[in-house]
Amino acid sequence: MTSLHHSERRASSGRRGRGAAAFAMASVVLALTAPSAGAAGPRTSSVGCDSARGAVVDSLGVLTQRHGLAGAAVEVVDGRCGTWGAARGVADLGTGRPMNATDRLRIGSVTKTFTATVVVQLAAEGRIGLDAPVERYLPGLIRGNGHDGRRITVRQLLQHTSGIADHMKAFTDRPVSEWRYRHFEARELIATALELPRPDKKWHYSTTNTLIAGLIVEKVTGRGVEAEVTRRIIKPLGLRDTYWPGDDIRIRGPHSRSYFTGADAPDGTHPARVDGTEWNVTLGGAGGALVSTPSDVNRFFGALFGGKLLPARWLAEMKRTVPADPERLWPGARYGLALVGSPLECGGWWWGHGGTTPGGHRALGAVGPGGRSISLALNEVPGTTQAEEDLRAVVSTAFCADRIERTARIDRPDHVKETP
């Protein structure tokens, strides 16, 4: 089953997963969206930039036309081509309102990078040791079933090498109605995860790890992780569309609806789409609860990689990676401290994170060579391996289309020499 988060590779090759498995989106409408308020418009209308925009629009169309997803949108921020957005499909199946790159959505496990950034900020301040045991901050919390907080470090939590299972596995086969609107406490979910079978791989993606990291932030600062993320990141960066929803099942302000596939009908007919917009996402907490927009996600990753949130030494710590499970992400992907590193076909790497929510929203934010950033929003989760591959192709196209076309490309070190 997929969990509350990320841009992972879905193993299914047929219909979309049901219920918790959709944690892991109809008419086709083309909409080139206007730049967000305060953003600079395109700085150039060169053939390369126009061609790149067209290629991105076409790649979004593959998701909505070939794979039948409700809507897909992207915002691109680039020093050469400016800030622009593109979208295909619809934000609301009921009204037919076109999808756009300015609506709010649940960003799922992109939340993990916000939380991890605060943990690393506290490490830079000397208040948390990345290689210190969890036991130092949360004595007695991680015990039982072979787990020992004295042998698990903060770094291993953020890197998903702690050996702790994902609490979402406990919800896989339970009816969605049992947990969709429930409030969950982090300690309750952690206790659930510790009772699950231990993962059989060294790298195992687990939202539970980030819940534990959030409790460490609370222990060290005396304030909840939500308050610290807001104080240290959301407010200073002016992320006006980013917020913690708490127990509010609605999304405030303009937003896309989200959709997931329901259970099989009694007569064996194909399951229908279900509107999953209203959801209590305390199940994801510090690892998956944030609401945001593509613009705010771009601003966050731009600030992180632009040195506004962490000194270079500590950003480098976030980029120290281990190989990720290719069945969970994809071949070649590596994982740092809540950062995915992925090689590009045109050279270099993109860095960022993706997220999936049970109701059907999928988000991804990433920064590539030369500082270009992209933020992707879907309102239905791809349901096949090919659809996931075509989703990754959108990212590759956004970073590479104009670079491949330019015959006189500058061979900068970050194009070909960086190895996470």
In a nutshell, what does this entry contain?
The chain is of the alpha+beta class and 420 residues long. The chain has eleven helices and 15 strands. The two termini are 28 Å apart.
Describe it:
The chain is α+β, with helices and mostly antiparallel strands and 420 residues long. 29% of the residues lie in helices and 14% in strands. It has eleven helices and 15 strands. The protein has helices at residues 47-66, 110-124, 134-137, 154-159, 186-194, 207-221, 225-234, 294-305, 312-318, 385-405, 413-416; strands spanning 30-31, 71-78, 82-89, 105-106, 143-144, 147-148, 259-261, 273-275, 291-292, 322-323, 334-335, 340-343, 349-356, 362-367, 373-378. Strands 1-3-2-15-14-13-12-11-10 form a nine-stranded antiparallel sheet, sandwiched between helices. Strands 4-9 form a two-stranded antiparallel ribbon. It has a two-stranded antiparallel ribbon with strand order 5-6. Helix 1 packs antiparallel against helix 10 (385-405), helix 2 runs parallel beside helix 6 (207-221) and helix 2 (110-124) packs across helix 9 (312-318).
Task: Describe the secondary structure blueprint for this structure.
Blueprint lengths: L29 E2 L15 H20 L4 E8 L3 E8 L15 E2 L3 H15 L9 H4 L5 E2 L2 E2 L5 H6 L26 H9 L12 H15 L3 H10 L24 E3 L11 E3 L15 E2 L1 H12 L6 H7 L3 E2 L10 E2 L4 E4 L5 E8 L5 E6 L5 E6 L6 H21 L7 H4 L4
Antiparallel strand pairs: 1-3, 2-3, 2-15, 4-9, 5-6, 7-8, 10-11, 11-12, 12-13, 13-14, 14-15
Helix pairs in contact: 1-10, 2-6, 2-9, 5-6
